[in-house]
Design a protein that fits this description.
158 residues, mainly alpha, 4 helices, rod-shaped
Length: 158
């Protein structure tokens, strides 16, 4: 007769010993083991930083302000077409004036979309993003001056 099933027969009068390795509960399951090497594309598992609600709210408010600003600056950019008013008496470069008007009307929207994309990426990564619409606002305002520089360069003597 075998007492504990793993050491062979137990002589009469001797009881089988208790073996804690065999009769204890199994260890808790902690998931599959981590791979030894997951490749260069595998990022280390890190905890995500907490969401900053004030940053999300401020970024959204500033982006809405950027949209209004882009609309206003694009509207003002259309008035750069008046740079061609003295061109009846002068020999003007209408191509430069056209580039200036189009730049003043299109660049605000390009800077708005770029600011929107960068803000969304930073918010998804949970990094500070409120500064991006502020930089975009400066670029949106600066786009009118870029267009004005081109438009006035097309008019000699201005």
């Amino acid at each position: 007769m075998y007492g504990d099933g793993c050491r062979g027969p137990v002589p009469r009068g001797i009881t089988a010993r208790y073996d804690a390795r065999v009769t204890s509960a199994p260890p808790p399951y902690n998931g599959p083991p981590a791979p030894a090497f997951a490749g260069p594309w595998a990022a280390p598992a890190t905890a995500r930083p907490p969401l900053r609600v004030w940053d999300v709210v401020l970024t959204i408010v500033f982006l809405v302000g950027d949209a209004v600003l882009a609309l206003v600056m694009s509207f003002f950019g259309a008035f750069l077409a008046m740079a061609s008013d003295p061109c009846g008496a002068r020999d003007c470069n209408t191509d430069l004036i056209t580039v200036g008007v189009l730049a003043a009307m299109a660049l605000p929207w390009i800077f708005l979309v770029a600011g929107l994309v960068v803000s969304i990426v930073l918010l998804v990564k949970r990094r500070l993003a409120f500064w991006v619409p502020l930089v975009a606002a400066v670029l949106i305002i600066g786009s009118w001056f870029i267009g004005a520089a081109f438009a006035t360069a097309g008019v000699p003597g201005s």
